[in-house]
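To fix ideas, we quote verbatim a fold written out as tokens:
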Amino acid sequence: MINIRTEEEIGLLRVSARLVAGALGLAESLVRPGVTTGELDSEIETYIRDHGATPEFKGFHGYPAAICASVNEEVVHGIPGDRRLNEGDIVGIDVGVRKDGYVGDGARTFAVGEVSDEARRIMEVTLRSLKVGLAEVSDGVHLSDVSHAIQQTAETEGFSVVRELAGHGVGTELHEPPEIPNFGPAGHGPVLRCGMVLAFEPMINVGGPEVRTLPDGWTVVTADGGLSAHFEHTVAVTGNGVDILTSA
């Protein structure tokens, strides 16, 4: 069952989601050549706790950090640590925040200094695929209409959509129904209704869609070593379209 949230609940979710947006804004100011992913994690965790909230990822099924920091061919769930970012890298930062019992979730991929045209393009297309998908969100449309729009945007530009990973509902838990793939035919699956709160998160690869998980049990990488980008927003469905709760 997909939860329908009250206006009061959406207000609480908005608070958590705005902290996610703030954390990602902080990440943007910190990402530069020479910084370690562990330093990003420490600064963002401090920001979250200073705002009376907790990092939702830390301890989630044993995950050891406040953020995920996924570099270059790492698709998602990269564990922060001693790795230093280099000029030309791209890094996806994924943040979850819990405040007053409600969770916000969001991600952005950042350029580290000057990056290649290919890196710029995969970031731009991934973000555009999310925006095109969210433009489909409204009361009464099929969830797969959004998935289809994301897939079409990415594949028209010659990129591939990761199949094994998906978006999800979000609320009092980080992962709630429904699962939201970033591909598939339009006109199928659940129908969106006002009050649903969902996290849409396309993960788009330069090469093929295949991925594998590293021995750390968390970090998902592209099977062919190609670049990958990841953007995510937590949104509420309204009668007038989409309300992006993680909007800055």
